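Fold these two proteins, one after the other.
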Amino acid sequence: MDGDGFPLRGLRVLEIGHFVAAPFATRLLADLGADVIKIEPLTGDPVRQWGEQVDGKSIWWSLHGRNKRSLACNLKDPKAIELILRLVRECDAVVENFRPGQLVRLGIGPDVLRRERPDLIIAHISGFGQTGPYRDRAAFGVIGEAIGGLRHLTNQAPGRTDLPPVRVGVSIGDSLAGLYAAFGLVSALWQRDRTAGDAKPRTIDVALTESVLSLMEGMLPEYGRLGKVRQPTGGGIPTAAPTNAYPSADGAYVLIAANSEPLFAKLMGLIGRPDLIGVARFSGNQQRVQNSVELDELIGQWSRRHDSETLIELLTGEDIPNSRVYTAADIAHDPQYRERGMILDVHDEAFDGPILHPGVVPRFGDEPNAIRWPGPAIGAHNEEILRGLLSMDDQEIFVLREKGVIS
């Protein structure tokens, strides 16, 4: 692929992170061509032990670590810290997600790093941010989801169940924070590099909690102005109707979104209730939202008479937005995803064959971005980085390995 497909080619980022948030941020950058050097402990990132395993190897890691170079070293050893400082001289940015203050305790705090590279961009990702009364509290993505307001809303409407609010299903709090960190880092690069001679350091402070909160739409303004606490609505949307998941005759659910006047009229005609078009309680979105329970019941009575494929054909024929609820199998075989290069068979030597990966987002140009390599083995690029980037010789590398500084 030519350089147009990799807009971040030439950017070098040092990742001193673990688990999900920082590695997700750097994966986004690496997918767009950045040279990401991931610092791993000698035992590897803990995520290598997550998810389904084949012969003791994580399938998820193939995606999680893709397009990055792995340098495995023991950060508790002063010699490893020296390596980090030498690497920083060659990097544009550092992304980390330790607890606030941990880099300082390791001897590679921001001031130390910037003595090596004065204009270094540092993106900190933590549970609550680098300041504030909660800064030192432990947090994972699920805590960010809870305090950010998302976990309260991922539930059925009040009174429908006594089960606890459900998780979204993926580490959404971590991934959101990683996304904001990547966006912030690129923004800082733009600010730094558009002005000749600008050698100012820039710091990005991303909190899991704040990343989730920023997506909560009108939840906070509505409370501040009206004192209204938004409540969960199950499969529906509190601001638009009809929009929900409706049951089919074969036990599946089909999403139907007909929350505009033309779409509502089409849907009522399709379900055999044209008499409801123009009725006061369904005229306009606000009225439909207020009567959404009745409306969902009417649509559900119709949807239960058809299997899911028939429902999709009928709705698509009327140009009404719809879809069944996709599983991983549906996604893997979907022709739209396949045509656009969003389902990729990536050869992974760790599994002696292909592993399915999602493609790169966003897309640049006409062709999908290539996956340069899957998640590497622990320390797979030690020699390449130490020799090629730091110009170390055989003896230096031998000594570091003998002393247990590197793998």
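Now the second one:
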Amino acid sequence: MELSNATLPQVPARVTVPSYDRSQLRTGIVHIGVGHFHRAHHALYLDDLFNRGDAHDWAVTGVGIIPDHTDIRDALAAQDGLYTLTEKTADGQWDSRVIGAIHRYHHAPGDPDVVIDRLADPATRIVSLTITEGGYDVDDLTGEFLGNSALVRADLAADRPLNSAFGLVLEAMRKRRAEGLGGVTIMSCDNVQGNGHVARAAFLGFAQAKEPEMAKWMEDHLTFPNSMVDRVTPRTVDADRQHLLDEYGLTDRWPVTAEPFRQWVLEDNFVAGRPPYEQAGVEVVPDVVPYELMKLRLANGTHQALCYFGTLLGHEYVHEAIADPDIQAMLLRYIDDEAIPTLTPIHGTDFHAYGRTVLERFGNPQIRDSLTRICEDTSDRIPKFLLPAAFTQLQHGRSVEVCAAVVASWARYAEGVGENGEQIDVRDPLREELMSRASEQHTDPLAFLRNRAIFGDLADQPAFVEPYLKALNAMHTGGARAALRQLR
């Protein structure tokens, strides 16, 4: 049985299906970047609201901007935008439900004008985004818009910018302005510190480069709330599809899986209204920053701390690395001694307990989140998730031994060869430069750390250099486990 509106009544009772009439949904949100995370997070919160009988004018029209992502378009079209979300608990229980919050999807490379029309429609009040950490094209150190990506460069050179999220939104805002309509809220749901500020810099920076007059209008009429989002959503594998078929007789071309845990903290800064997110469990607050730092340093930072050591030790999945006693001891020390001291207190929140919850979540063997995924795009992630904690520790004269060892594990990983001679597939936008620097570190141990675009002046700070070289030398002479045991 293929999943669709027509087959919903036939879905087995063990699978929860939408209780609302999807024909009554109306677009209020256009989401750019409909991937696994959006479908397991934002769309789920909306589905919960719709099932309560609320907010049916806040359904999602999805938009894809990557030219070769036609498979996503085709899968959602065949299933009327429906898909299954399966939550996997550590004890082996899999609970599935059908999500109906996405009621339209458009692939912008095939028909950009229909996307612009949808963005410009008066009913559209929020444009939400999951375009990845690197998708904003904003300099991590200066906060300035760079305009370096291929899609953005094409838009900057074109008469009509129809390739990037920034170009499509600019075209739509031009149309809204001409028609006397107000602005929208640009709501980033990406794992980026200050994601609202970053989105603002990207969209206004692009507009300034393309059409300064529109940049001023957008500055006056658009809002960019910050948010903190959290949920582990691994890539879909064939086993997930097979489970649905074997267990329920259900064919889903693009299911999604996730851990049971989810969290969303959202700044209340919406120029044209919003759904009642708090009724679905979203924490709507005046200031997201303390929550954001907690998550970025204790959850995302922990992911980065474990993935390179885990790979070097031969582990394949995150839960395997978490179960390794030497890695777990290192993570506890990172959380307690080097991350938590840099956080701003949050009333009613125990950071140590939160850190243990992170390890418990990541240790869920049912999720099977690959270390390869966590190791990807490190040049975007380490500067956001781990280095800010290191710099804060250094400023206060406190230990950075674990942070330095993690950076050293990345440097060793970037050599591209494991401890038994196996090839490591280094996936990073800066792959060639990173691997070139890593190849020099046997004769120049600080070659990797001297990349100032990533590490700033860390190579000039003895308090960081000393533990970094100690860990790197241990990995070169005794392996990753020897380096970890030095941290005990």
